[in-house]
Every structure is written in C-alpha cells, then in structure tokens.
Specification:
heterotrimer; A mainly alpha (266); B alpha/beta (253); C mainly alpha (295); A: 266 residues; mainly alpha; MetI-like fold; two-stranded antiparallel sheet; 2 strands; C: 295 residues; 77% helix; 0% strand; globular
C-alpha cells in the first residue's frame, strides 16, 4: 500500500512540475521570437559560466551561485529569527498581561499596514544607523520582523485550537505551567504547524529578493549586475527566475507531501 | 422477480462501476406509476447509487434505463425538459442557506418553469401548509430544526410538481424525536399518486407505507416483495440475516 | 467571538518585565540617536519640504506621490479582481487544459519573488506591449482635463501608470484566484445537486446558489488581499513609477532629511492601509451577514 502511495506522489510530483516547465518552455519560445524582431543576440552558452566555473583544475562558484548562497543564508537566518519572534508574539497575545497583549497587537498592526520595502528602508536608513547594525543584520531583522507578523497568526490559531484536554491532563498530573508548554503543548503544536510553516519559508525566500535594494549581493542583485555588464537580459533573468522557482516549488511540494502523509498515516 | 409490465421507471440489466469496484450488478427493475417503493439494505449495497441513476446525478455504465418513456443510454444525462420532474430529497437536506424558506421553494419554479413570482409564492405557501410549516416561511434554514428543514426540503421538491419523488435516506441525519414528523409527511404524500422511491432504514415506515420493498446487497437486488411477505416470510438467506440484524439487537457473546 | 467579561485589571509579573524592557530600549534609542550619531532632528524643515510645491506645479511632489499610489491601487484592484475571478473560476472549470493553464499561471506568480517579476515584466512586456498599444499617439493627441487627471494622472506618466498597474495586477490576480477557487470548492456538493435535481439551469445555479455563498466565503481573505495590493504598490517604485515610495526616496535623498521623510512615508502608508482595513471590514460584515444569524 505504501509503495502505491509513493508511486502516486511521484507521478503527482512530475505532473505538477512538468506542466510549468512545459509552459515556461513555450513562453520562452514566444519571447525568443519577439527578441528576434529586435535583433537580440542569444548567448545561452554564456549562462553556464555565471553558475559555475572550472579553472585550473578546480570548480569555482560563479556569481549566480554565490548570490544563491547568500539568499539561502539570509532566508535561513530570517526563518530562525521569525520563528522566535512569531512564537513570542503569539504567546504574548494569548497571555494575561495587558502590556504584552497591547505590545503584540501594536506590533502586528504596525507591520501589517506598512509595505516591506518601506520597512526595509526605515531599518536601513533610520534604525540601522542608530542601533549600529550592518547591512546583513538590518536585512535579516527587517525580513524577520515582517514575516513574524504573519507567522504569529498561524501559531496563535494553532495554540488556541489546541485540545484543552491535553493541558488539563498535564495539569492534573502536576506539571508546572512552563513544563506543560515545553513538553506537551509546543511539540504537538509544532508537528501540526509544519505545513503552514513551510509556506512561510517559501514566503521568506521570495521576500529575500528585496534586499537587493540595499545592495546586498543576493541572487537578484547578482543577476542585475551581470545584466548591467553583459546585457544578456533574457537569459539571466530567466535563469534567476527559474532558480527561485525551483527552490520555492520544491519546498511547497515537500510541504504538501508531508501534509498528505500525515493524514494518510492517521 | 419483477413483472414484465412496463412501468414508469424501468431498469434493464444495468451495471455500474466506480473504478474497479462494481456498485450495481445486473439490475432489473420495474416501478409502476403511483407505487411507493422502499429500498433497503446494508451500507455500500448500492441503494443510493441506484436512485441517483434515476435522476441522473449518477450515470450508469451498462444497460438501459427508461424513465417515463425516455430511454437513457449509459453515460447520458437528462434532456432539459425532464429536469425537475424527478424530485429528490437528500439526507443532508441541502437547503440554500442564504435564502429564506420561501425563496428556497420559489427559486426553481421561477427560473425553470418561468412562473411569475406571485404564482410561485402561492404554490410555495400551499406546499408549506401541506408539510405543516407555513409559519416559518420567512425564516432562514439555520433557524430551523433538522426535522423542519427536511420538511422544507420536501416542500421544495414538491413545488416543481414532480411525477417521481426520490428520497435518499431522508431521516438518517435527524435526531430520533424528529424522524416521526418527517415520516408522517412522506406517508401523507402517498395519497397523491406520485411515484415514490425511498431509501431508508426505517422498517416500521417501510412496513406500513410502502407497496413493495426491495432489498439490495453488494450491488444486486436480492429480494422484492410486498411488505407483509418481506417482513414475515422472507425468501432469501441474506434477507433473513439482514432483517435479524436490523430488527433485533442481541449482544454477540 | 469571545465574550470577555469585564475583568478587573491585575498587573502581572510579565507586565512589569515588559515595561522595564521597553524603558531600557527607549533609553538606548535616545542615547544612540542624540549622542551616538548626533543626528539633528529637523521636523520643521521636513514638513515644509514635503508640503511645499515645486515651482510651476500645483500640488506638492509628496502629494502627487500619494495620488499616484491611490490611482495605482484602485486601478490595479479592479483589474486584479477581474483577472483573479476569471482565473479562479478557470481553475474550477471542467475542461482540463484551462484548469492546468490557470494553475500554472498561479503557481508561477505565487512562487516568484515580486522583485524578479517586475524586472522581467518591465523589460519584456513594457517594451513590447506599450508601443503595441500605440500609446504615444494617444498621449500626443489628448488634452489634460480635470477628470482625466484625477483618473489617470498626467499624460506623460501614462506609460508609467500602465506598467505599474499591470505589474501589480498580475501578481495580485494569482492570489485572488486562489481565494476564489477556495471559496468555490468550499460549497458543499449537495448544493450543486439540489440545484440540479430542481432543474435549475447552469447559469442560474451559479447566479443564485453558488456565487452568493461563495462570495461570503471569499470576502474576508479578499479584503486582506486588497490591503496587500496597496502595500505591493510600493515595489513598482523600483521601475520608476512615481508613486509614494519613489517620491519619498527622491525627497529624502535631495533634502538629506532621511529620518523624517521615511518616517512620514511609513506613516502615510500606515494610515492608508489602516483606514482601508477598517472600512473593508464593514463591507465584509455586510456580505457575510447570513453566517452571523443564530438559531
């Protein structure tokens, strides 16, 4: 039965990948026709060197690959900070402290009513200099603050919907409040939250491209720089978009597979 | 098993599959005009699928179905003029939650039969009266109890003046104290000459109200008989087992 | 909806800890900003710069930016809603190829970084589509009337406006489509079947049975999408659409009053979105009213 399941999910994996790839191929073809009209010289062979280079018997990462690594680094660090921030916010919102609730609510309203770009600029031009942060730190904090506002809703919903019976069982066994949280509530909440959290990770990776505006050398910035130097606009942008899509689509797919598997295993 | 009289609903060697699973096997059936048929059997025996083939919410894969003289080949759905002439009452009521009771009833006559609003409302109120629920005409479905909602559903189907009325386990979603009011309404309808096919577990109802009882198991018709014969002198083994299980409960040990 | 009884407020330990923490942070902030980097806050100059107009133009530059953002958002909301509904219904359609096509569009646009999309869009499409639409002819032929200015802005910036609107719309439409599709699939099958067994024609089924119920389910997430749309409009500043962020950036750089200007810009966005969300919540409450009726 489980091999059948695996076969079906591979099939689904392929078919959900295949169609976008086919359509991208089609669009590329159409676009290339348009490009011919303006006498664009295609130089696909040069794209490879932006990814990876072989020089003197060693592999070197090309600029795009370096940018990708920075993107991944920023996304990962932001994810960790986001988890901490959003969990704290969710707990504050559900707490009995009025200052805590107000603080959380104020934070959420502030973040959710201003654009990410503006927040980034504010961090970079105002808060960063005041608090002495470097560019990377500013970017990571800004992304995390933004994402945490949305992720906290997920945690809050998860914590509220949590089965009261579990808490009562813990309390009746004599566990303290913190122990209750630590051993009973949080582990279960996390397991349930995994699929929506993967969506947040996808969101982070997408939003990370915005750090390009403060000249951090992530994937997007590297793409822009290469285009500025070589004018290979089509090839490079398509490559950059494809790399992002591969990462985000894969993550989304893993999330939906995990979700399905959990239901299946029940 | 069945007479060769051409009835108003005829099934001839009807088969249907859901993927690999055969849900209807060689169904031969003939229902006369004005008859009240009860269809019973264990879960998964195909009873719901069978009646859904009558109003084409499901289509069959093999064999011939004839409804009121209209021949239906496998996979074919109704010509437009027959839609609505076969009413259905669902287990989950399926009332439209965003409309009042009155509008639930008048929607189809206005949009399908192209009646004027006043006329449609007159008809609707008459039928609401028949199911003893006229005073709730301007309420919304979620303000009514389950039994009331099902009666509204019956009135809604009746507004289209159907000649065939299908019931798909009409009382299975109801609390026990409300089952009676719905069954009473259905019993009263038998006087009207409408052909009725009712899938139900309510054996008391089957016994008192139906003209014939059909027992299905694993997709085939096992036994067809008048109620008195069916309950007192069942022929087939499977029928006997089913009746034993459903009429008397005794712990297995 | 929780019915919170009026409870007497009792300060908790957490309250105390938070207030203390906030106090410390404020001190650090004050110290760093006035002593650490010795920034001279200059609100007077900031306000005057922002609100005075350049020579020869009636409205201050900052205000034109606000107008531009409003214009962008409204046009984009209209177009994105239309496109989103079409795609959402398309995802629900019986014809497989339409489903897949809509599905692919949605997947790509939801998973690509907005920044990458607008750069690609800007290079490929605006250089092709706009000459195609013969916009230059239209611009030279038209005169600037009052209503025209309100709806579309100055004619020299029409190309700008169209690029911006299309960009934002294409991205938002993908999200709206998912909301629409979720709303449609949340309608129980029994509603379709009841309509079918009553003989109601297909168009009427959609009109009287499905859409009213779907709209009630679609309304809440849809309003959230509109707020996102206003926020996403800030991104088109990077392709030189002269909306609020772009304008703010120019003013900040030219006047050197970075702190004040950026805080002002953030404040304007905040007011816009906050007011929008309050008014949309009222609309939402009206649309979902049949969910609120109790037994």
């Amino acid at each position: 039965m489980s091999c059948l399941f695996r076969y079906l999910s591979i099939k689904r994996f392929l078919s959900s990948w295949l169609i976008p790839v086919v359509i991208i191929g089609l669009l590329t073809f159409l676009v290339s026709r348009g490009a011919e009209n303006i006498n664009y010289q295609w130089q696909w062979y040069r794209v490879g060197e932006f990814l990876i280079q072989f020089d003197k018997g060693e592999w070197f990462a090309g600029p795009l690959l370096k940018g990708l690594l920075i993107t991944l680094k920023i996304s990962l660090l932001s994810l960790l900070l986001t988890l901490v921030l959003s969990l704290s916010t969710a707990i504050l919102r559900l707490s009995s402290s009025i200052v805590g609730r107000g603080l959380a609510r104020g934070y959420l309203e502030l973040i959710r009513n201003t654009p990410l770009l503006i927040q980034l600029y504010l961090m970079y031009f105002v808060f960063g200099p005041i608090l002495g942060w470097d560019k990377m730190t500013t970017a990571i904090i800004s992304l995390s603050l933004f994402q945490a506002a949305y992720t906290s809703e997920i945690f809050r919903a998860g914590l509220r919907a949590f089965n009261r019976g579990q808490i009562e069982a813990g309390l009746s066994l004599g566990l303290s409040r913190t122990d209750n949280y630590r051993y009973i509530i949080l582990p279960q909440v996390f397991r349930q939250m995994l699929p929506p959290l993967t969506n947040e990770a996808v969101s982070l990776i997408k939003n990370s491209s915005i750090v390009s505006v403060i000249a951090i050398f992530d994937l997007t910035t590297q793409g822009r720089n290469i285009i500025a130097k070589t004018f290979l606009t089509f090839e490079v942008w398509l490559m950059v978009a494809a790399i992002y899509l591969i990462i985000t689509l894969t993550l989304s797919l893993i999330a939906s597979m995990v979700e399905r598997r959990k239901v299946f295993m029940k | 098993m069945n007479g060769d009289f051409k009835g108003v609903i005829n099934f001839n060697k009807v088969n249907k599959w859901f993927g690999e699973f055969q849900v209807l096997r060689d169904i031969d059936l003939s229902i006369q005009k004005g008859e009240c048929i009860v269809l019973c059997g264990p879960s998964g025996s195909g009873k719901s699928t069978l009646i859904r083939c009558i109003n084409r919410l499901e289509t069959h894969d093999q064999g011939l179905i004839e409804i009121q003289g209209v021949l239906l080949a496998p996979g074919k759905t109704f010509p437009n003029n027959l839609l609505g002439k076969i009413g259905m009452v669902f287990q989950d009521f399926n009332l439209f939650p965003h409309m009042t009771v009155l509008n639930n009833l008048t929607l189809a006559p206005i949009r399908n039969l192209k009646l004027a609003r006043e006329e449609a409302e007159q008809i609707a109120l008459t039928y609401l009266e028949r199911v003893h629920i006229r005073d709730q005409a301007n309420k919304y479905p979620d303000q009514l109890s389950g039994g009331q909602q099902q009666r509204v559903a019956i009135a809604r189907a009746l507004c289209m003046k159907p000649e065939i009325l299908l019931f798909d386990e009409p009382t299975s979603s109801l609390d026990p104290e409300m089952i009676r009011e719905v069954l009473d309404v259905i019993s009263e309808l038998t006087e009207d000459g409408i052909t009725m096919v009712c899938v139900t577990h309510e054996m008391g109802f089957a016994r008192k109200v139906s003209d014939r009882v059909i027992f299905m198991d694993h997709g085939e018709i096992v036994e067809v008989a008048k109620p008195s014969d069916f309950f007192d002198r069942p022929n087939q083994e499977r029928t006997k087992t089913f009746l034993n299980n459903i009429l008397h409960y005794e712990p297995s040990s | 909806m929780s019915n919170r009884k009026k409870s007497r407020y009792r300060p908790t330990k957490l309250d105390g800890a938070l207030v203390l923490g906030l106090g410390i942070l404020s001190l650090i902030w004050w110290y760093r900003s006035s002593i650490g980097i010795a920034y001279q806050w200059n609100w007077d100059e900031a306000i005057t710069t922002v609100f005075t107009s350049k020579k020869g133009i009636d409205t201050p530059f900052f205000i034109t930016g606000i107008y531009a953002t409003l214009r962008l958002s409204i046009w984009a909301a209209l177009f994105a809603t239309f496109l989103g509904f079409v795609l959402g219904v398309g995802r629900y359609c019986a014809i497989r190829s339409i489903r897949m096509f809509c599905g692919t569009y949605i997947q790509i646009l939801r998973n690509i970084p907005p920044l990458v999309f607008i750069f690609i869009f800007y290079f490929f499409i605006s250089s092709q589509v706009l000459p195609f639409l013969r916009l230059d002819e239209l611009i030279s032929r038209s005169e600037e009337s009052g209503l025209g200015w309100v709806l579309f802005g100055p004619s020299r910036l029409w190309e700008n406006l169209i690029s911006g609107v299309l960009c934002i719309s294409f991205i938002s439409a993908a999200y709206i489509a998912e909301v629409v599709r979720a709303g449609l699939t949340s309608i129980p099958r029994g509603q379709w079947e009841a309509g079918e067994s009553l003989g109601i024609p297909l168009a009427d089924k959609y009109r009287f049975i499905i859409f009213p119920q779907a709209l009630a389910r679609i309304a809440p997430p849809l309003t959230g999408q509109y707020i996102s749309l206003v926020k996403d409009s800030s991104i088109v500043s990077l392709i030189s659409v002269q909306e609020l962020t772009f304008v703010g950036s120019e003013i900040a750089n030219s006047s050197g009053l970075l702190f004040e200007v950026w805080l002002l810009v953030a404040f304007v966005y905040f007011c816009l979105c906050f007011l929008l969300s309050i008014s949309l919540r009222q609309v939402e409450r009206r649309v979902t009213r049949h969910f609120h009726r109790g037994v």
